Amino acid sequence: MYQALYRKYRPKSFDDVVGQEHITQTLKREIVTGKVAHAYLFCGSRGTGKTTCAKILAKAVNCPNLRDGNPCGECEICRGIDDGSIMDVLEIDAASNNGVDNVRQLREDAFFTPSVAKYRVYIIDETHMLSTGAFNALLKIMEEPPSHVLFILATTEAHKVPATILSRCQRFDFHRIKSEDIAGYLEKIAGKEDVELHHEGALLIGRLSDGGMRDAVSLLDQCVSQGKHITAELVSRTAGLAGSRPVLELAGRLAAGDAGAALEMLAQFHQQSVDMTRLCEELISHYRDLMIFKTAQNPENLVFCLPEEAQILRSQADGMKMPAVLYGLTVLQDAMSRMGRSVSRRTELEIAVIRLCSPAQDTSMDAVLTRLDALEAAMRAGTRPAPARQKTAAPEVAESPAPSPEDERAQPPSPASGTVFDGPEPDPFPDWQDILERLKKSNPPLAAALKQSEAYVRGDLILIDAKDELFFKLVRQNDFAKKSLRDALQEQTGRLFRLGPYKRPAKAAQQEQREDPLDRLAALAADAGISVENE
Q1: Boundary residue ending a domain (132, 148, 173)
Q2: Which domain CATH number covers 215?
Q3: pTM attached to this predicted model
């Protein structure tokens, strides 16, 4: 039966453990000098060697043929511990044996002297999963253990272990293994397995494993199943990655604000069965690299990339401001957190892409800072920043035609003041005061912002000329404000209208000011059928 590589090449001695010299050297000295503690706590992320070192320590304290603190691996005790035939060394999974009854049984068995070995060793994996009662029962025997008992606790979450347990253990923190060290170990395994492993592929596996040797060897095993010639491209396909070059190209499209091209690249990745979560992780890693290149003096020491990729990263970092980089990290991490709850991970990533390409559509603080930074840079350069490109207008805002020379001579429109339309002026909306009365009940702040406002109608479009700038902010940023206004219009008229800002042309406003108010009142009375005589 085929044996997985991570089991086949599991370290047998302290010298075989990679990247944890600060722990293995200390344990070897304790064993050589005979100063072995009665309880140890091994902490660290997954795949860094906690359980492996626990088994090596269990063999070393019982091996009669020590070799500079390492077990010989050849005696009957070492072989029996490796194959599990010696019952004096017991490995317990606290995730499935976390009750107080399990620990009570352990306490009863611990008082029996070992049958073959010198020490009775209990390796408790995932210790943080023990219940409160189990911790209390374990504390009793750890306070005054028999001289022949050794406890080795392993956990990935040391903060969940009670302080009373921590104070009775020698604690060792396992570090994440460097990508270079992982790559070197993988190349040794590849040589023994007669596999050609490129150095770039080994480095990529090391980076993807996040400092865990077991994950790295498992990924190598998966790559070996596809062929004996392992390159970085093969590793990328096996892990479901888009690849470094395509990610750099996608990041360039995002920096340029080309949402269409970025979405097309996402569609290609989806067609190639690229995992969207992995792709989002790669983009987050890329923006993190940009942040490092913009802040660190020697970013090459903190970023894993090939020399030619480092040049592209540096050029992209030089072309982006720090607020834009931080905004990209925030958007992508938000998308990453939502992917686990979303029906479509692709849609979440597409939303993030659009937000990155169009910060003007985002009202978050990071987006505002990004736009302010771009505006300040344009002002320092003496140029006017280009507006965000939009292929379609938002459904609730009317899109005005290009201004004629006659309109340009009038007051220019702005997002706050509204839209100036060519052609005849739209008709006044007769029910506007009734609408405001309805809003006073459903949305008083919006009604206050519409005080002294006027409304006009053109087809299914209601154009609002408001004096208070707060109204335009509410309509742009508050969905409830838009819904309240639409509902009031529909309740009053029975029709569904679109909304749009409006600014009356300067000529019409001046002409209205020149009109005599009495004449206007007389005209309204005449329309109502009231006879008016001028004296």
Answers
A1: 173
A2: 1.10.8.60
A3: 0.58
